[in-house]
Amino acid sequence: MSDTPEVKAIQDAINNLESSLLKKQNDRLEEIKAGLKVPDQDPKIKQLEADHAQLKADLQGLQAKANRLDFTGAAGERKSAGEQFLEGVELKNRARQFNMSVELKALTNTTIGVVPDAQRLPFQETPTEPHIRDLLPGGETSNSTLKFPQRKIASDVNGAAMVAEGGLKPESSFAFEMVTTEVKKIAHWMKISDELLEDQPALRSYIDAQLIDGLRDVEDAQILKGDGTGQNLLGLYTVASAYNRAVAGDTLLDTLLRAKTQLRLVNRTATGIVLNPEDWETIQLLKGSDSHYIWANIPDANGQRVWALPVRDSTKLSEGEWLVGDFRRGAQLFDRRQAAITMANQNEDDFKRNLVLILAEERLGLVIYDRLAFIKNAPA
Description:
- The chain contains ten helices and 13 strands.
- With 380 residues, the chain is an alpha+beta fold.
- A six-stranded mixed beta sheet has the order 6-13-10-7-9-8.
- It is extended and about 95 Å long.
- The two termini are 56 Å apart.
- It comes from Deinococcus enclensis.
- Residues 131-376 form the Phage capsid-like C-terminal domain.
- Keywords: Coiled coil.
């Protein structure tokens, strides 16, 4: 941030003002020493001090704006993937044949359960679909494998009890086993024309709408249903415990509340729900005995929520499948390499045809600390 032209200009102006202010103060001091009569307040010094204070405030504002990452800033100030990429490369000064790569800052909402506002961009709108990663705490790793303690389901024994003074204390056995998981890569590429490359607003929104959201779609599928083999993550739905509190006549709303309770009965606390869009529609269409829509009378400023829990509707689950979980404590998503964008036209054919290849890729690992933290419904 300190090297940008705007900041450098303000810093130079501050230095010049400070020099002028110091000189004016020294001149005033010499006049006082010489016995000259000077006014109590010098208007020029007062103006210099006011200008100095304003420039310092401007500099602090720019620095604060630069430190806002993605969804944590105010609306209109966050940087999308496309904006970060275009700020990281100089397209105008590129060679006729080139290869450019920029690693992006985190593209996730740091407030779990809050759906980010949509941002309208030229050419295409950035997709507003919330993703499963939003429910999970994030982390970073520099390794290709992650070794972590996973809670063993069948072995936990809570032996805590009231004990008489001098009595023998009981033992609790909370068993863990060390589990190793590998960091996996998600990637895809597309080709664009030189004309789109020259249109920076369109290129920015193209990166956001096509490349980055394409990575997130695969993330969603892997976080939920990855089978853990080959280049697949081991997904939360894959390892979740089966729902076992079904009651005849229950609506889907009833069922989700019972699933939330099922987690509490094993001392876990639900923090989110994932279900198919058609099941989410079923909830929204529920009516009372007087035919009014129940959901329409439950306004919530925090986005889609059921029983005070954030909801993600995802096509990665089939109709009738849903997942209720303690996403905050039961699992964590680690970025080995956050989303990176690479552009190149070094392929001879692309160079002749004025085409540019854009590659988006990331490396990440999913750690599941506690399989009992997730409940699923898997229709027969």
